[in-house]
Design brief:
four-stranded antiparallel beta sheet, seven-stranded mixed beta sheet, alpha/beta, 2 domains, Aspartate Aminotransferase, domain 2, single chain
Length: 388
């Protein structure tokens, strides 16, 4: 167990918080929707754009600089989440990463794509479309009503035993904050030769992750939520042994190998083959700054333990309020979903926003969701005050 006493003191925390403009004029509890950036991250992006224009966007020097940005971010991903840097493909968000895998499998009519009834609607839409296009059976394992990991594992093991081609599910459920036992699920998948795609939108930047230990085939990450980077950044981790099971659907110069005459001759050897063409490369400077800012303040484990402590504190406080119920008390992440028995979620959201407390509603189950980061202590107090 990490000793929270080893975390920087309160003065250091307040100095750290002061670097985030969005935390100065509101009580922001929506990192699961989109995180907020530090001033230094915003400045890093600005300086990167200025640097590109100063030296010419399309020049030999810029191509070298661009590759440095790409390689540097992949090294940071590998440091934070494990695995090898070349097996991270840069994406715009976690949904794009999931789409790369969904469309990259050599599907056959009648194959089964397995998912759960707790997935984000954007990713579910992608699953529905690929199933429609390839005439797949889209199987949905119902876990929303289950109370324990044991029950969830039993339900998934039965579904996995039917040997779908792919299981796609979230590591942390976006609507309740429950953390799924992903390592055990990955073991079931390996036993039945089923590929596993994990949506890490609500886990990356919260949970201590190790791709080598999890042994998932594919893991999609977003940079604009808990990592505090800019929108338009993210990554897809592809396990080396699962690389050849998928092919690029969209392709371009960034993912290809060329001969001396400029003719494409194949794919790059690792996950870069899934990258396409020109992107907003200066955004990577902001993402790099954001990731390093978190890691310099505290270790991944320390940050998670602080998130866990604050999340449990919020739940205890919510349970003391009359007419407030928590959706899933197991938690384990920074997401807390709750509802009032006297006011609908949309009405309550508007009342809290009028007090500068920023959360979001969830459609199913109908509730409010608070996202607790490691520096959210003041926001928790304000939320409880507003609900009271």
């Amino acid at each position: 167990m990490i000793n929270l006493n080893n975390l920087p003191d309160e003065a250091a925390l307040q100095k750290h918080r002061a670097q985030y403009p969005a935390l100065q004029n509101k009580h922001y509890l929506n990192f699961g929707g989109q995180g907020c950036m530090a001033t230094s991250s915003i400045e890093a992006i600005k300086q990167a754009y200025e640097y590109v224009q100063e030296h010419g966007p399309f020049s030999t020097k810029m191509f070298a600089w661009m590759q440095e940005q790409i390689d540097g971010v992949k090294i940071l991903f590998a440091r934070e989440f494990g695995g090898q840097a070349p097996y991270y493909a840069l994406t715009q968000n976690a949904t794009e990463g999931c789409n790369i895998i969904l469309w990259g499998i050599d599907w056959r009519e009648g194959d089964t794509l397995l998912t759960t009834d707790c997935e984000h609607n954007g990713v579910m839409k992608a699953a529905m479309q690929v199933s429609h296009r390839h005439k797949l059976k889209l199987a949905v394992c119902k876990i929303a009503h289950l109370q324990t990991d044991k029950e969830i594992l039993e339900a998934l093991s039965i579904a996995i035993a039917k040997k779908p081609r792919l299981l796609m599910l979230s590591h942390v459920l976006w609507n309740t904050g429950r953390v799924l036992p992903l390592q055990k699920i990955a073991e079931f998948c390996r036993d039945h030769n089923v590929k596993l795609l994990a949506d890490g939108a609500q886990s990356a930047g919260v949970l201590p992750l190790n791709m080598d230990a999890l042994k998932v085939d594919y893991y999609a990450i977003t940079g604009h939520k808990w990592l505090g980077g800019p929108e338009g950044t993210g990554a897809l981790y592809v396990a080396p042994e699962a690389l050849e099971a998928i092919e690029p659907t969209f392709s371009g110069w960034r993912g290809a190998v060329f001969d001396s005459a400029g003719k494409p001759t194949g794919w790059l050897p690792a996950a870069a083959r899934f990258e396409v063409a020109t992107s907003a490369f200066p955004l990577l400077s902001g993402l790099s700054d954001a990731m390093q800012r978190h890691s310099q303040f505290a270790t991944t484990e320390q940050r998670f333990q602080k998130i866990d402590r604050l999340t449990k504190s919020l739940k205890r406080s919510l349970l003391q309020l009359p007419d407030i119920d928590i959706i899933d008390d197991t938690g384990g992440s920074g997401l807390v979903s709750f509802y009032s028995r006297k006011a609908d979620a949309a009405t309550l959201l508007k009342k809290l926003e009028s007090q500068n407390v920023i959360l979001r509603t969830i459609p199913s189950p109908s509730c409010l969701r608070a996202s607790i980061h490691y520096f959210s202590e003041a926001e928790i107090a304000k939320l409880i005050q507003g609900l009271s």
